[in-house]
Amino acid sequence: ALPVYGAPGTSKERTFIAVKPDGVQRNLVGEIISRFERRGYKLVGLKLLVPPVELAKEHYADLSSKPFFAGLVDYMTNGRAPVVGMVWEGPSVIKQGRIMLGATDPKNSGTGTIRGDFCLSIGRNIVHGSDSAESAEKEISLWFGGKGEVVNWTSNNEEWVISEN
Ligand code: UDP
Ligand code: MG
Hints:
alpha+beta; four-stranded antiparallel β-sheet; 4 strands; globular; binds uridine-5'-diphosphate; binds magnesium ion; kinase; nucleoside diphosphate kinase activity; Nucleoside diphosphate kinase
């Protein structure tokens, strides 16, 4: 059974968001964190790392047969810049996180979305976000699987941000 924290459909739903190496290189980490903070979402996991090749391959396993897979894994893991991995919590954060990111191909991303405001090219689209509850569960355990890496904490703002009545 899913734990109370992180359960999709609850106010504690969680998603995995990452700033990819191009986003770190372009100094957009603060901008991206800020957008999720200002929306009202709660940061419950955060790390900076050059992901091991095996982690990147597992993360993108569903794309392993695509022609761009090798280049994608190299871009994520070659160490020219690290990745910022995050777990964000709040109502509908999986779906809303994807909306905040914008379409995969920045040529189709709306203005006002992260990709629509900062990107031009599908191979340099600066952010990742889980695309479903299943992906969120897989990706959070993959990137934040260690004990205590995701932190349960109570925001003193919560009653001013979340009320379903
Ligand atoms: N990607 C790419 N070329 C493509 C499709 C995808 O380089 O034709 C990269 C791009 O960085 C994208 C990632 O592969 O963000 C994962 O693809 P997916 O379809 O899962 O898009 P996302 O979930 O990131 O929007
Ligand atoms: Mg995806």
